[in-house]
């Protein structure tokens, strides 16, 4: 992110603030914030931004007495690829710069991307890739540069000295870079430097589903206006974006189906679901059916969305998580878990009830049953072939007990 002038309310001192590879820096200019002083330091601000844009920013050169030099050195910024003799020696004009080709690549692919993915790609390109490779001719990027870049990503730490980017996030950044360079290698007929560069290993995140007793404890204790919401979450396995983006036109009471056709991501309504298999029809059990009938009486004439705020807009999941979900778990003495565990809970309850794996996979929007056995293997009993009625029996028995 380019540099900007800021000031601290406590002392009104001017700072130059900028971000390098997702790490924020604030450098004091030692003068008070005023219109005249801002004009005086404009040239300094322009010089900092020029070096950031050209990929050759060196903190020592601009702020030799900075307290952040050690933090900056972790980013290995002074030795950017753009300033090495190897890159200065060859300036073949028939090859575009990384920045120019990336711009073309994004424009060509934007039509195929969902809004959320488009924003994610733009963030990665702007925050990591262009600052690193910028004006380098794209064919000059070699294997050793890619490995060094990946290592630098892994070396980024937060203010507590903890690693900032997970392997999964680094793999995501590298996958965008791979797609850009591989496309360029096809068009301009040079060997891709990504050959045999494998992804970093991801530690499998363990799932923490709720037991049926815990589910009913939550449902008995949650605020009444969220009761139907959590019944639907726990007994359909819908993703957060799917349930928050669910509209009444996709609720078929006659056939007892929820039609997953849209999702909401970061406040943006997407016209298609996550994957082709995510576009599906979810069978309602009786409990979900009754909960949605009750919800229709509350919001059916008020909003297009099944679950909405007082204004009729879609729920903001971070707000719900912070204000409803986490306080509820804490009050009940349950271990803190992400709301996504409701999806895992639905899967494990279906498995425990002996539902058919193919039916469960279809309910969850999985292309096949592989993920069921990979993720939920320790929850799989002796499977029987059922069609969704087994959980109904399990719930009924639990209520009677």
Automatic annotation (TrEMBL):
Keywords, alphabetical: DNA integration, DNA recombination, DNA-binding
Highest taxon above the source species: Bacteria
Matches recorded under SUPFAM superfamilies: DNA breaking-rejoining enzymes
InterPro entries: CB (IPR044068), DNA_brk_join_enz (IPR011010), Integrase-like_cat_sf (IPR013762), Integrase_catalytic (IPR002104), Integrase_recombinase_N (IPR010998), Min27-like_integrase_DNA_bind (IPR022000), Phage_Integrase (IPR050808)
One Gene Ontology term of the molecular function aspect: DNA binding
Tyr recombinase domain residues: 205-391
Swiss-Prot/TrEMBL GO biological process terms: DNA integration; DNA recombination
Domain Core-binding (CB): 96-185
Family label: Belongs to the 'phage' integrase family.
PANTHER family linked to this entry: PROPHAGE INTEGRASE (PTHR30629), PROPHAGE INTEGRASE INTS-RELATED (PTHR30629:SF2)
Protein name per Swiss-Prot or TrEMBL: Site-specific integrase
Organism: Opacimonas viscosa
């Amino acid at each position: 992110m380019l540099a900007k002038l800021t000031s601290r309310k406590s002392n009104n001192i001017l700072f130059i603030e900028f971000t390098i590879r997702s790490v924020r820096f604030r450098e004091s200019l030692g003068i008070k914030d005023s219109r005249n002083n801002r004009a005086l330091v404009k040239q300094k601000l322009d010089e900092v931004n020029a070096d950031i844009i050209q990929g050759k920013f060196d903190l020592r050169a601009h702020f030799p007495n900075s307290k952040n030099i050690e933090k900056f050195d972790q980013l290995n910024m002074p030795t950017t690829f753009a300033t090495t003799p190897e890159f200065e020696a060859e300036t073949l004009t028939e090859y575009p710069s990384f920045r120019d080709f990336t711009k073309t690549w994004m424009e060509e692919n934007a039509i195929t991307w969902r809004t959320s993915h488009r924003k994610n790609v733009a963030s990665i390109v702007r925050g990591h890739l262009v600052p690193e490779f910028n004006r380098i001719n794209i064919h000059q990027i070699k294997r050793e540069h890619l490995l060094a870049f990946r290592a630098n990503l892994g070396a980024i730490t937060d203010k507590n000295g903890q690693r900032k980017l997970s392997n999964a996030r680094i793999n995501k950044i590298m996958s965008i870079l791979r797609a850009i360079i591989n496309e360029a290698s096809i068009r301009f007929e040079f060997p891709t430097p990504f050959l045999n560069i494998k992804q970093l290993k991801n530690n499998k995140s363990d799932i923490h589903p709720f037991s049926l007793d815990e589910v009913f404890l939550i449902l008995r204790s949650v605020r009444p206006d969220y009761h139907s919401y959590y019944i639907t979450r726990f007994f359909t396995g819908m993703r957060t974006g799917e349930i928050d983006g669910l509209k009444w036109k996709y609720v078929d009471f006659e056939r007892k189906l929820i039609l997953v056709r849209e999702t909401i991501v970061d406040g943006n309504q997407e016209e298609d679901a996550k994957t082709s298999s995510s576009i599906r029809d979810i069978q309602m059990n009786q409990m979900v059916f009754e909960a949605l009938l009750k919800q229709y009486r509350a919001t059916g004439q008020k909003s297009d969305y099944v679950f909405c705020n007082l204004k009729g807009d879609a729920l903001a999941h971070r707000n719900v998580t912070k204000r409803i979900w986490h306080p509820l778990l804490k009050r009940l003495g349950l271990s803190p878990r992400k709301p996504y565990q409701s999806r895992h809970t639905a899967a494990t309850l279906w498995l425990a009830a002996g539902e058919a794996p193919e039916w469960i996979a279809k309910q969850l929007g999985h292309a096949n049953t592989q993920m069921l056995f990979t993720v939920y293997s320790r929850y799989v009993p002796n499977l029987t072939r059922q069609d969704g009625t087994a959980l109904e029996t399990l719930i009924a028995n639990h209520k009677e007990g």
